[in-house]
Amino acid sequence: MTDPSANTRILGQHLDGETIDLVRGRFVDYVSHGSTLTRCRLVLHGPARGVVFHEGTFIDCEFVFRKPFKGFSWSHTVLRGCRFVGEIDNCQFGPRGLPASHGAPGAVERCDFSQAKLGWCEFYGCDVDGLRFPGWPTFIVRSPLEHQREWMSIPFPESYAAVEQKMIGGLVPDMDVTSLAAVSQNAVAISRQHGVSVDSLRTLLGRHSFLST
In angstroms, rounded to a whole number, what is the distance separating the alpha carbons of residues 128 and 183? Predict the structure, then answer.
């Protein structure tokens, strides 16, 4: 029987082809600080607060989330050719231009999110064309600052326009989105929160080339 007080600590190690179960106990698991994992399968059984990937490198790995994985920054984690399965929301991927004191910058390259259920996730300093995203009801806002005027012209419901639309468009002073390459959104979540039908959203979004639906 697994000791519920035990935790995983992979620090500065190099692993290849292993399956690793995480976030099963009461304490935080670490796969970080100079570790490099290649072709590994990481199965996360609990919430994001139960794991640290800071300054870890993952190459051709698979991340499987058994529960919703929310509110996590991958900005100091290197992800190359990785695959993501499960529900992911309010996460940041890629280097955000944070101070060096926060750690070495991460990366998100050639990763596959097509089997993930993405909510609001932000992708910084990356080649968006090299990433695979899920289809509708997920939609991707590409280069929102470059397309700020067109994005802000879309007549979303007032409650969405007042907050989310402005944040994605870089019009919230306290939110630095200078290196923001893309943002994922979920039309079903927007429909529930803002009282607009999913079909209406798709009609609004379908006219704009910088949006992937």
Answer: 10
Residues forming a β-bridge with 22 = 44
Question: Mean pLDDT in runs of 10 for the chain (213 residues)?
Answer: 70 98 94 97 97 97 98 97 98 80 84 98 96 97 94 95 94 79 97 95 89 88
Q: How many CA atoms lie within 13 A of 190 on its CB side?
A: 28
In the chain the first and final C-alpha atoms are separated, in Å, by 45
pTM of the complete model: 0.92
State the residue for tokens 């200078």.
Answer: 178
- Strand-pairing partners, residue 52, are 30
State the pLDDT at residue 97: 67
Strands 69-74 and 83-93, sheet pairing: parallel
Name, in order, each residue with C-beta under 8 angstroms of 213's C-beta and a sequence gap of 6 or more.
135, 136, 139, 140, 202, 205, 206
User: pLDDT value at position 2?
Assistant: 46
Residue type, 129: D
Q: Tell me: cis bond preceding 134? Omega within 30 of 0 counts.
A: no
